[in-house]
Each structure stands twice: as structure tokens, then as C-alpha cells.
């Protein structure tokens, strides 16, 4: 194996520091006792975490993001799982076209989707409603969910199913007791990844949110735009901690690099 | 056979209908909106987009910004992927999580971090004064440098993944064979490694360019009103100027450029992928 020289290791250290710097900065600032964005070294407190509870603006948005992510990820799974099974298990006319079409939202800038939905929902009088936001989120996260369902379905060894059939299992039994169990990790990861993409989405949602229905990233965005106060950092730190926990769970269930590279 | 076809239709139809209603129709409606003028359908919005120097500046800024971000992210990300590939598997696992993990954190949080670092009383400014690099507080907010750094941070993990995946397809024996035949490190990289990871680099460059060219939250916060890009201009036309047809025309241009780039690149990519897999070692990982 080729080894890294000292120069490569210095580069590596700088790279990792660059990656971590903004996240570390957010977490440090959240512990300041000042009324502005300052490092906590000359005075630390938890006042900005307390402030999150006192002014429940961010907590409301957090809860909005949670149910929005959960419902849209479930909807997206309901749509993409059958499609993924069809695409991976059968050869049929238009198969490639269907799979390309279902992945196509990845090619469309979220700002474009934002204005398209704004116009579309306004025409139908459902802008700023939960239904509109859920539908829009389900659309943009379906490609991620589909990709993981596809790779899980592709990795099934069909001989296991054939063995079940030869032992007298009915089609339904084969599906629920063999196929579904084998792809379950892929399904769970697909749902989680879809949830995360919905939970983190800001650009498109910025066009569709209303004051009474505002996902967390949009609430953070508006607050950062008009006045940076450390409660934003406190909320963001909680998000960083949650993301780290999600990462650990995904890594255990499915393997993080498999999720990111979308393969095997 | 008939029942299988019915089943396939039932499996794919819900998703396709959902896409038709929520992707095709809204995109069509934004396309139509871009031709709306007070005196019936017309090209007024497009005329303004292409002739107003204000928009020309915004387009050129977005293009320059995206090119720079792409170039920097490619160099840094490829370098890091190479360094990673030479580490032991356990270190690889740890650092992949550290480097790819930020992808799971909302871009708004990462941008907030840069806003803190770049602010007039932020750590970068304090450090610069302490080192006597600057007399007073300096701020990278609303500067091109700051915007580039933040966008590189958002996009560089995609380069690392992409190159790392294509490095997995290289048989280490090839490098060893090159070394045993007397090639130096640079020659090995240029002749043996680079051709194999080129598809990965190319596809990453497409993703990063598209990401930078269409980014909204980071330019809105770090660039502000002073450094408007196409995405923030669209937002302003829709939500503050309330000139929807003009915003729609900008959106259509952005969409067409993006989709056009993807299809053009795909052709180049397929060709280079074919070339990369023609000889040597294990088969390449399938494109995702």
C-alpha cells in the first residue's frame, strides 16, 4: 500500500479543520453569555438554550419540520418502494425511461421548484397549507428514497426466493417473509435519508412557507437574515447533535458510505 | 403474462401520476408564466433578462463564482480522496464520516457557521488582528472570497465521495507494478491513477457546478444584497419585487442551463467512463 507523506498529512489536517470549522464555531457560540455572536471564552452560559424554550418560535418550527419530514418521507416511500421493486425485478418496455423520470427531480434546481410550486399552489389556493408543503417535499425526496430502495432490491439473491417457493411458500408469503425482510434495511435507510433531506430543505420551502407553517431551516434563515442572535446558534447546535446521532444509527443499520455513494 | 403487466402498471403508476401532477404541471405553468405580459403573451421578460446589464452582471457573477468553486473543490476534494485512500481502513471509516457527515446537516446551519467565522468580531478577524495582518476588524461577509469559501465547504464532500468511489475500482497492484517498472509517484498518478478516476472527477465537477450555480441560502446570507446571484435574484423578483413573469423567465433560463449541462456532460462522461474501463483491473463501480 502507498503511504501518505508528511505533506499529505498536513493537507489532510487542514482539510478536516476546514470541514469542521463552521460547525465548531456554531456550537461554541451557542454557549456564549453575550447578547451577540461571540465566543464563550470570556463568559459561558446556557441562556440561549433557555431562550429556545422561553420563545417557542423555533420549537414550533422544529415540530413542523418533524411531522413534515415524517409524512413526506412516508409518502415518498409508498410511491418509490413499489416502483423500485418493479424496476429492479422485471424487464419491461420503458423501464429505463421510468427510472430516469423518477430520478429527474435531482436535475432541477430547488429555487426553480420553489417558484413553480408557489405559482401552482397559489392557482389552486393551497399555498401555505400542510398538503402543499408535504406534496412538494415528497417530490424532491423521492429520488433519494428510490435510489436506496433500488439498490436494496437489486442486491437480493433471487435463489433465496426460489428456495422458499420450492419449499411450498405462496407468493404472498415469499414477499412478506423473504423479500420484504431482505430489503428492510434499505427501506429504513431510504426513509431516513428522505426524512433528512426534507428536514434540511430550505430553498424550496422558503417560497412555500407561511408564518403559521414554517419549517425550521426557513425559520432559521429568516432569523439570520434580519438579526443574528445566539439563539440561532443554540438551535443549530441541537441540529448538529441530532445529525451526528442520525449518522451513528444509519451507519449501524446500513453503512454510511453505502448511503452516500448510493450503491452496493 | 397479462397479470404481470397489470401488476407492473399498479406498481409504477402511482409514482408516475404523482410526478405528472407535481413536477410536469408546475414546471409547465412556470414556463407559461414567463411569457405573460400585460398585453397578452410575449417575450418581454426574456428581453429584459438578456438586455438589462443588471441581470448580465448577475449571470456573469454566478458563472464566475461557480467555475471558481468547482475548480477549488475539485483540487481539494481529489487531493483529500487520494490521501484517504492511502489510510488504513479504520482511519478511512472515521474520516469519511467526518468529511461526509456535514452533508446530513442543513446548509443553513453550515452557512451560519461561516457567517460567525467571517463576522467583524469573529475568530478570523481576531486572529488577523492578533497576527498584525490587519489594523482593524476585517469581515469576509458580503465578499466574494467568503462566498467562495462557504460554497466550497458545502460542495467539496461530493467530490470526495465521487473520487473515492472511483478509487475503489483501482487494483493496488497496478500502482505497485508501475513503481516496480521505475515510474515515479507523479508518473504513476498521471498515467495510471488519473485516467481511472477521471470519470469520478468529471461527474463531481458537474454536481458541484450545478450546486454552486443554483445555491440559494449560502449566497443569500454570505453574499447578501451586494452579491446577488441568479437564485437570489429569482427569490427577490418573486417575493419582494412581485414581478412574477420576470422571476419565472430567470428560473426557466437557470433550469435550461442546468438540464442542458447535465445532458451534455452525461455524453462526455459516458465516453470517458468507457475509456476508463477498457483496460486494467477490477470493473468500475456502476454510476449511481
CA-atom Rg of chain B in angstroms: 23 Å
| Major sheet description of chain B | 2 strands, antiparallel
Architecture per CATH nomenclature, i.e. the level-2 architecture of chain A: Orthogonal Bundle
Count up the domains of chain A.
1
- The low-pLDDT segments of chain A are none
Strand order of the largest sheet of chain B: 1-2
Residue runs with pLDDT of under 50 for 5 or more positions of chain B? 279-288
Describe the structure.
The complex is a heterodimer of chains A (264) and B (288). Chain A has a single domain (57-261), classed as Orthogonal Bundle (MetI-like fold), CATH 1.10.3720. In chain A, helix 2 (47-54) packs across helix 11 (230-253). Chain A has twelve helices and no strands. Chain A is globular. Chain A is 76% helix and 0% strand. Chain B has a two-stranded antiparallel sheet with strand order 1-2. Classes of the chains: A mainly alpha (264), B mainly alpha (288). At the A-B interface, helix 1, helix 3, helix 4, helix 5 and helix 6 of A face helix 1, helix 3, helix 4, helix 5 and helix 7 of B. Chain B: This is ABC transporter permease. Chain B: Its main location: membrane. Chain B: Keywords: Cell membrane, Membrane, Transmembrane, Transmembrane helix, Transport.
What characteristics describe this protein?
heterodimer; A: 264 residues; mainly alpha; MetI-like fold; 12 helices; globular; B: 288 residues; two-stranded antiparallel ribbon; 2 strands; disordered C terminus
Describe what is shown at a glance.
The complex is a heterodimer of chains A (264) and B (288). With 264 residues, chain A is mainly α. Chain A has helices spanning 6-29, 47-54, 57-89, 95-103, 110-124, 130-154, 158-166, 171-200, 203-208, 216-226, 230-253, 256-261.
